[in-house]
């Protein structure tokens, strides 16, 4: 028994939560929110939810993050907390249905994809895609 | 418990089963548990989502003793998928008052927004009392899918066995959570109440 647990413990660093997945793209988009992106990819958000999120938001950069493993409200709490600690973030929305996190950044803030990816990973989930919209 | 059975639990059931979530980096959690075997209060801090350290005060109802364990929990493996998450944890603890009193074990989980399955195994070594094992499996279904921030409900069934009492019991559990608070309530006419409260900071 002890040997089994010891082996699992030792080998575990080799079997870590796979960090991020391939197929991660960063997009920048000015203009209509529900349009196709400049690269032909659709903006993959719940339109009604996104519109509600955007109420009152002007002059912001919006990051739409696709996340894997975000299946539980209780487990996703850390994501919201981590982003709200950033003083340049004014609003965060977690959509468990579509696996998206929407973050509104101050216009002056240059969105850092690696920073977002790290924050998601620190909560134990993986970022698989990122779309950036300038409002 | 034989090695083959443990391997079965860890390598096979872990694919289909779920347990308790681990804190995010920098998060703290307090848990209060009470069942027919013990009452415990456990506080832990997670420097990383991969592990947590904490202290647990346990009052054993069978041996009528009290112990304070330094605990360490390590996330051995996590698989994030689009609609599911699977975890396997190693857990251990050592009594502050006597290092010969310690425990180790594993628990795992698999979860979607609708389905939940989990298992746990714990081997408790004691200098003053008999050594014993606790193990459980747990399955659940969410009767409705709530949005982020809603009040969430799970209907679950848990089967638990302890070598201390030699009882195997299967009983229903209701699990609720909202925001940072989680409550699990189970009842069995042989083992009575199984309560678990959790709050995450």
Plain-language structure description:
The complex is a heterodimer of chains A (135) and B (201). Chain A has one domain (20-134): Alpha-Beta Plaits (2-Layer Sandwich), CATH 3.30.70. Chain A has 135 residues and is an alpha+beta fold. In chain A, strands 1-5-2-4-3 form a five-stranded mixed beta sheet, with helices on one face. Chain A has helices at residues 2-11, 47-54, 73-84, 113-122, and strands at residues 26-30, 60-68, 89-95, 100-106, 126-134. The model of chain A is unreliable at 8-24 and 27-32 (pLDDT under 50). Chain A starts with a helix and ends with a strand. Chain B is mainly β and 201 residues long. Chain B has one domain: Beta Barrel (Porin). Helices cover 7% and strands 63% of the residues of chain B. Chain B has one helix and twelve strands. Chain B has one helix spanning 3-16; strands at 27-34, 38-48, 51-60, 65-80, 85-95, 102-111, 115-125, 132-141, 152-162, 167-178, 181-188, 192-200. Chain B has a twelve-stranded antiparallel β-barrel. In chain B, strand 10 (167-178) and strand 11 form a beta hairpin. The radius of gyration of chain B is 16 Å and the shape is globular. The model of chain B is unreliable at 6-21 (pLDDT under 50). At the A-B interface, helix 1, helix 3 and strand 3 of A face helix 1, strand 4, strand 5 and strand 6 of B.
């Amino acid at each position: 028994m002890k040997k089994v647990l010891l082996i699992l413990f030792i080998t575990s660093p080799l079997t870590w939560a796979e960090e991020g997945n391939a197929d991660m793209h960063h997009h920048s988009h000015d203009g209509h929110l529900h349009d196709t992106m400049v690269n032909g990819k659709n903006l993959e958000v719940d339109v009604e939810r996104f519109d509600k999120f955007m109420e009152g938001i002007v002059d912001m950069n919006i990051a739409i993050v696709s996340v894997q493993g975000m299946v539980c409200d209780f487990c996703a709490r850390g994501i919201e907390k981590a982003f709200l600690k950033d003083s340049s973030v004014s609003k965060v929305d977690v959509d468990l249905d579509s696996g998206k996190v929407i973050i509104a950044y101050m216009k002056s803030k240059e969105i850092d994809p690696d920073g977002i990816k790290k924050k998601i990973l620190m909560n134990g989930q993986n970022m698989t895609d990122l779309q950036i919209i300038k409002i | 418990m034989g090695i083959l059975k443990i391997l079965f639990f860890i390598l096979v059931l872990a694919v289909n089963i779920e347990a308790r979530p681990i804190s995010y980096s920098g998060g703290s959690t307090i848990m209060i548990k009470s069942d027919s075997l013990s009452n415990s209060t456990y506080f832990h801090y997670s420097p990383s989502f991969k592990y947590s350290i904490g202290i647990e005060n346990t009052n054993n109802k069978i041996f009528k003793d009290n112990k304070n364990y330094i605990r360490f929990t390590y996330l051995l493996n996590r698989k994030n998928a689009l609609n599911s998450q699977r975890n396997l944890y190693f857990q251990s603890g050592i009594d502050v008052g006597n290092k010969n009193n310690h425990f180790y074990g594993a628990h795992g989980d698999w979860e979607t927004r609708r389905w939940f399955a989990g298992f746990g195994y714990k081997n408790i070594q004691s200098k003053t009392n008999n050594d014993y094992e606790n193990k459980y499996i747990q399955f659940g279904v969410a009767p409705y899918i709530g949005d982020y921030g809603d009040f969430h409900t799970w209907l679950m069934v848990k089967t638990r066995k302890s070598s201390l009492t030699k009882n195997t019991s299967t009983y229903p559990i209701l699990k609720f959570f909202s925001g940072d608070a989680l409550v699990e309530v189970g009842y069995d006419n042989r083992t009575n109440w199984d309560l678990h409260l959790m709050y995450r900071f």
